[in-house]
Amino acid sequence: MGASVRTDRVAEVWARLGEVTDPELDEPVTDLGFVETVAVDGEGGVDVVFRLPTYWCSANFAFLMADDMRLAVSSLPWVRAVRPQLQDHMVAAEINRGVRLGQSFAEALKDFAAGETLDEVREKFRRKAFERRQEAVILALRAAGHDDAAICGMSLAAFDRADLGEAEGGYQKPRYRALLVARGLAGERAFVTYNGRPIAPHELPAYLQRLRAVRINMEFNSVLCRGLLDARYKEIDADFGLACGSGCTRHAPADAIRESA
C-alpha cells in the first residue's frame, strides 16, 4: 500500500470516528480529544487508540464508545478488522478484548457488571441528544424571526428549507433531523416530543425550559471532561485551543462556560 493510499485511508477513518459521540455529552469523540492515534495496515486492519478523562470513567460509556468506533470504521469498504484500544482505564483489557470479539457488554464485563445491558443507557442518552439538538434549532428559528405558532406547526419540508446559518443551530439542524428519522418521527411536523407528541404553541416556553436544563447539564459535563482530560495528559495550549495527539484541534465551548459559571 502506497503512502498516499495510507494517508487517504487514515483520513477516512478519522472521518468515521467523527460520527461517534460520547453518549453522555453528544459530542464527537474526535472533538473531545479522546482519540489519540489511528493506524492502518496493508491487510485492511485498523488500530484506534483512545483514552478517557479518568481511570474510572464509566465502563458502560467506555464500552459504548469502543463498540461504536468499531461499527463506524467497519462501514468503510476496504476495512477487514477494527481494533479499538482503550488505554489507561480500569477495565481497558476487558473492553478491548470484548469489542474485538464482538461480545456484548454483559459478556465482556461479566466479572464486573454481571447481567447488565446497555439498552437502557443508549435510550437515556439518545433522548438527551434529541432534546439538546432540538432546543438548538428551535432557538435558532426564534432568532430568525419565527414565532412559536410557526415553529410548532412547521412542516418537515419547511424545516429542511430553513437556513439556520453556521452557528449552533445550523450545526445541530442535520443532527436533529437524523435523530427524527432514526426514531421514525420524520412525519408531517418537524417538532414533536421524543415520544412523538405534537407541541402546542402555549406549551413551548415551559418545554424549552426543560430542554435548557438538559443542555446545561450536558455542557457542564463536557467542560468537566475536557478539563479532566487536559489535567491528566497536560496538553493545554496557551490560547485555550487544545491539540490532541492525532493532530486534531478542539476548543472549549465558550457558551458552556458562560452557562455553567
UniProtKB/TrEMBL annotation:
Transmembrane segments: none annotated. InterPro entries: FSCA_dom_sf, MIP18-like. Coiled coil: none annotated. Pfam families: FeS_assembly_P (PF01883). It comes from the Bacteria. Residues 11-82 form the MIP18 family-like domain. This is Metal-sulfur cluster biosynthetic enzyme.
